[in-house]
Structures are given as C-alpha cells and as structure tokens.
C-alpha cells in the first residue's frame, strides 16, 4: 500500500497484492490498483474512485453520483452503474475480463466471471437481484426485485478523505448448464441459467460522536484563514496607530526634542 510519501494523492492505493502488481485477468483488467477501502487520500474534484476487492481479484470503479450530507458533514457520493461488471459489451475497455476469443463463458454485461479467482468454480458476481444487468439472465429467474438502494455506494468527505458511509452490496451466482450425464444440472428448464445463491450487504456509517469531532475539525480548518486575516488587520491597525501617535509627538515638540541630551556643555578654554 502506498504511504503517500512521494505523492500524497496516492495515499492508500495498493501497489501489490499477493506479491504481484497483476492478477489473473489479462491486460489492464489485471492491474492491482485502487484503495482497499480503509484509507483515502484527500482529493477534491475526482470524478471517480477505485476500490480493489480481493474477493473478486480485481478492482471496481465507482463514478461520482452527486453531493451528499451525512450527520451534518458534506461529502461526495460515488455509486456503481452499468459499467461495474461489464466485459466489453457496452464499454470496450473492459473486454479484457473475457478471453481474447470470446466464448460461452463471456456472459452478457453485468456479471463478472470469477472462476479463475475462485479455484475454477463456475461463480459469477453481480449486483443484488441482477441490478444494472443485461436482461438475458434476469428474465430466466422469478422473484427478482432490483432496487436502487441495493446499489454499491461510497460517500467521502473530500477535504480529509474520511469515509462517511459505505454500502457494499454484491451477489454470488452459479452458472448452471445442462451437461449430459449430470441429472442434477439438467433439472432446470433452461439449459443456460445464472442461479442466484445469496447476496450480502455490508454497511458502515460514521457515528454521531465521530461526526461531531469531524465537524469541529472542519470548522477549525475553514476558520483558520479568517483568523489569519483578522490578525493581519489588527497588526496593520496597531502599526498605523503607532505611527500616528509618533507623528503627533514630533509635531508638538518643535522647541524641545523628544530625546533630550543629558551631557553638559563644556566651557570653551580662555
């Protein structure tokens, strides 16, 4: 993890994972980059944030979705969209999540194949209830009710990089296909079905006590420039006042100098 010693904007970004700067995915999809979520560099105006998730052996990019206020602290909210688990169908730069020769294991947009990350198991990661996913597999499952509150979101205070709220939500699925001789697989009516197994939600929100300390620190930070301005104005006023008093004394003491000599005049020799 980068300490930010040479470039503070890289604070908290992962440099290596499992002693390597690459994962099993090819090209840029296999890069080790982004924050692990605990430490963020204060950077105002960034259009997106990158989170490295060891459970899927890859990183996730969350674009900015707008301002947010959590416990009285202003921040910026970042939320996933349909690019989160795309594999080249909508965003060509993500085609590296599939083999160069696209085959049946390269599913429509919205499902990330993590088989190589999960010891060869036919596992795919999506958003809960196939949120933001291509309808090809979602249309084969009854009972799905995707909602926007199921989205993966992260809110940050940009002056300090402090996480205000995190809602990490993902769904684990198994790809079940009909295989000759395996009657268990062949029970499903469709020969190619992405079956939801479970989805989880991990939510963290800043506490009221910690938020009170943060608000005080942010108010102190925003008030410091005004304090310096006030001290500068007071200093200038004192300087002008001192010069004014000195000039008045000089003007009122034309006959008697301000500094009188204490040395007596010596009589001239005869």
Automatic annotation (TrEMBL):
TM region(s), chain numbering: 226-247
InterPro entries on file: CD36_fam
Keyword set includes Cell division: no
Keywords: Cell membrane, Glycoprotein, Membrane, Transmembrane, Transmembrane helix
Subcellular location: Cell membrane
Main location as per UniProt: membrane
Molecular-function annotations in GO: scavenger receptor activity
One of the record's GO cellular component terms: plasma membrane
Domain of life of the native organism: Eukaryota
Family label: Belongs to the CD36 family.
Classification via PANTHER family: FI02050P-RELATED (PTHR11923:SF114), SCAVENGER RECEPTOR CLASS B TYPE-1 SR-B1 (PTHR11923)
Protein name (Swiss-Prot/TrEMBL): Scavenger receptor class B member 1
């Amino acid at each position: 993890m980068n300490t930010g010693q040479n470039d503070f904007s890289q604070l908290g970004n992962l440099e290596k994972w499992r002693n390597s700067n690459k994962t099993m995915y090819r090209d840029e999809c296999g890069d080790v980059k982004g924050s692990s979520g605990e430490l963020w560099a204060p950077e105002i105006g960034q259009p997106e944030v990158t989170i490295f998730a060891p459970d899927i052996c890859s990183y996730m990019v969350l674009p900015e979705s707008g301002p947010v206020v959590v416990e009285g602290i202003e921040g910026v909210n970042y939320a996933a969209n349909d690019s989160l688990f795309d594999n080249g169908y909508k965003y060509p730069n993500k085609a590296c999540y599939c083999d160069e020769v696209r085959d049946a294991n390269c599913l429509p947009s919205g499902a990330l194949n993590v088989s190589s990350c999960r010891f060869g198991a036919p596992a795919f990661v999506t958003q809960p209830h196939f949120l933001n996913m291509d309808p090809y597999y979602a249309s084969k499952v009854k009972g799905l009710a995707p909602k926007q509150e199921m989205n993966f979101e992260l809110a940050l205070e940009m002056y300090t990089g402090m996480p205000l709220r995190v809602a990490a939500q993902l769904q684990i699925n198994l790809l079940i296909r009909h295989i000759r001789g395996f009657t268990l697989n062949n029970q499903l009516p469709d020969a190619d079905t992405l079956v939801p197994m479970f989805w989880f939600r991990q939510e963290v929100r800043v506490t009221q006590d910690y938020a009170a300390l943060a608000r005080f620190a942010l108010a102190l930070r925003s008030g410091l420039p005004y304090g310096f301005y006030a001290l500068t104005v007071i200093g200038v006023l004192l300087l002008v006042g001192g010069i004014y008093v000195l000039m008045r004394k000089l003007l009122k003491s034309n006959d008697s100098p301000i500094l009188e000599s204490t040395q007596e005049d010596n009589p001239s020799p005869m």
